[in-house]
Amino acid sequence: MPITDTRQKRPSVQEQRIRLFRNDVLERTTMVSPVAFVLTWAAMLALAVYASWGAATLVESVGLVLFGLFLWSLFEYAMHRFVFHMKLTSNLGRAFLFLSHGNHHTQPNDAMRNIMPPLVSVAICGTVWLVLYVAAGAIGSTIFIGFGIGYVIYDSVHYAVHQFPLRHGLLGRLKRHHIRHHYAQEEGNFSITAIFWDRVFGTEVATKRR
Q: Is the pLDDT of residue 6 over 80?
């Protein structure tokens, strides 16, 4: 008589995936693969380089790009702290928070949702680009290159800390910083890449050693 394995198979992340919309088309817009992410943002940044070409000298452009990276680091912290972790009590507000970020805390290791879907990221960053262009003209596109690079680094790091066993070096430190946000104290460690902002603004989740 054949022996039957009675152990229950542990469901995969895909089998556990939270469904956000009943409509299949809308549901697909909430997910993105790393390949689609790379292609989308390669095109977005190439467009920004084209739009900014000749707007400033090489030295000025480097400075503007670095300024854009600085803007992104603050935007990343503020967006995570003051938008994704708002305290809303209405049904509509709670639904917005769950769609935008709460589902990630419920299922943090879903690879298809560790990167912001292009429908959202392009809309937000496109709006920032428009504001920069209106405020500063052609050099606004140069600033946006830095802002966009900052976003790409942010989502790449976020994907990596959830999907890979990073233990050493800078990436290991970034992983520990973010994992404490998920499993120790959600109201802290809001930065993903520029983690010094949590120390500056007093939201760093202390390690046991401290």
A: no
Q: What pTM value is reported for the model?
A: 0.89
Query: Per residue, what are the HEC states of 106-138?
Result: HCCCCHHHCCCCHHHHHHHHHHHHHHHHHHHCC
Residue pair 75/147 in contact by the 8 Å Cβ criterion: yes
Q: What is the pLDDT of residue 88?
A: 85
**Distance (Å, rounded) from C-alpha 85 to C-alpha 97?**
8
Rounded (to 5) percent helix, strand, coil in the chain: 65, 0, 35
36, 117 Cβ separation under 8 angstroms: no
In tens, the pLDDT along 123-142 reads: 999 999 999 999 999 999 99
Q: Could you tell me which of 148, 147, 210 has the C-alpha nearest to residue 177? A: 210
Question: What is the 8-class DSSP label of residue 85?
Answer: T
By the 8 A CB rule, do 193 and 153 touch? yes
| Cα radius of gyration rounded to whole Å, the chain | 20
Alpha carbon distances (Å) from 61 to 26, 109, 132, 134 = 39, 37, 15, 18
